[in-house]
Write a structure and sequence with these properties.
Elements: H1 2-14, H2 18-38, H3 42-45, H4 47-58, H5 71-108, E1 120-123, H6 128-141, E2 150-154, E3 167-170, H7 177-182, E4 190-193, H8 198-211, E5 216-221, H9 225-233, E6 237-241, H10 244-253, H11 257-265, E7 272-277, E8 285-286, H12 287-298, E9 301-306, E10 315-316, E11 323-324, E12 329-334, H13 343-348
Parallel strand pairs: 1-2, 1-4, 2-3, 4-5, 5-6
Antiparallel strand pairs: 7-12, 8-11, 9-10, 9-12
Helix pairs in contact: 2-5, 4-5
């Protein structure tokens, strides 16, 4: 009989809603005060003592600074206030712990909606390649002044591969408003698209370009023939095709080419390629001046430039007499990213 009653109470408590628990707390507090008042425990029923004493007694902490003084009060505390209070106290703690655990698991499974902006949004899952991409983004993030949130958004049935380092969202499709709102696609600074299927990357790029036309967008394609098709509709999307075959051919006639390109992109060893935008306060300056000062003062080498408003038309090895204006961007090779350029040095050498 006792076991059946115990199972029944456990089931009832497990199925209780939060409002039911609040009502139970109010009932417990009210009945405890009434019974203590009937037991003539005037010290315990005073407003400044009652709540404090009920909490420490019902939770069995029992500081002992306040205690029942009558026989009826002692029986009441022993057989009603402590047992019922302990049950409710354990129920509340259990519910809170369960809620916290559920929230953590929802985040790990990507079921929560995010509230971020100006973040880097990675769309797609390619196993170890995506892990490598995220690790590189985390390393690159450490070398810049601000600290953008990195969000991984996938359709695959996985959990967050890098908890405590990135945010994670799981969706059913990359072209549904309700799903993509959870990843805050409208407020992303950068959107990186890399999916196993090129057609999925194509539709994702079309959708994201429409939702957030001001974001920097990069899409990876296995089939280079799709690059031109996408850029006809979305000229603001930077398309990155696979260059593995090209590197094989280049290395056949220029040995070491593939190693050189790998070194330029490797942020762990050797030199690496970075970029910087010419700030608004810097007057027009020749490539020749920037090239010389970069080499002499920063031990860096200028390798290309792109004019403002024409982000997809990169000029590699530009002429020395080419003019750079505010808003233009230069690409350079250096041991590490140059955090703070002293632009006055370039102005003084005009």
């Amino acid at each position: 009989m006792f076991i059946k009653l115990r199972k029944m109470f456990i089931r009832i408590f497990a199925e209780m809603r939060w409002y039911t628990i609040v009502l139970a707390l109010l009932f417990y507090g009210l009945t405890s005060w009434l019974l203590l008042n009937l037991a003539d425990e005037t010290a315990l029923t005073q407003s400044e003592n009652f709540i404090y004493w009920l909490v420490v007694t019902g939770s069995t902490v029992g500081y002992g600074d306040l205690s029942p003084s009558t026989t009826a009060g002692k029986y009441l505390v022993s057989f009603y206030i402590i047992p019922l209070g302990l049950s409710i106290f354990a129920l509340v703690l259990g519910r809170v712990a369960t809620w916290v655990s559920n929230q953590w698991h929802k985040g790990a499974r990507g079921l929560k909606s995010l509230d971020v902006k100006d973040h880097i949004l990675v769309l797609g899952w390619n196993g170890h390649r995506t892990i490598r991409l995220l690790e590189l983004l985390i390393r690159e993030r450490a070398s810049i002044e601000d600290d953008p949130t990195i969000v991984l958004c996938v359709r695959a049935d996985i959990v967050n591969p890098l908890p405590n380092q990135i945010e994670f969202v799981k969706v059913t499709t990359f072209s549904k408003d309700a799903d993509m709102d959870r990843a805050c696609v409208d407020t992303a600074r950068v959107v990186l698209m890399d999916n196993p299927e090129d057609d999925l990357t194509m539709t994702t790029a079309l959708y994201c370009s429409q939702r957030n036309p001001n974001a920097q967008m990069v899409a990876y394609f296995n089939d280079e023939s799709l690059v031109g098709l996408l850029q006809k509709h979305c000229p603001n999307v930077e398309c990155t095709p696979s260059v593995a075959v090209e590197m094989l051919a280049k290395s056949a006639f220029d040995p070491g080419s593939s190693l050189l390109h790998h070194d330029l992109l490797d942020i762990n060893h050797g030199q690496a390629q970075y970029s910087v935008k010419i700030p608004a306060h810097v007057p027009p300056v020749k490539i020749e001046n920037i090239f010389e000062i970069l080499k002499r003062k920063y031990r860096a080498t200028l390798i290309g430039m792109v004019k403002a408003g024409d982000a997809l038309n990169i000029q590699v090895n530009p002429a020395l007499d080419a003019i750079l204006s505010p808003g233009d961007k230069i690409f350079y090779i250096a041991d590490e990213r140059i955090i703070k350029f002293q632009w006055d040095d370039f102005v003084e050498n005009l």
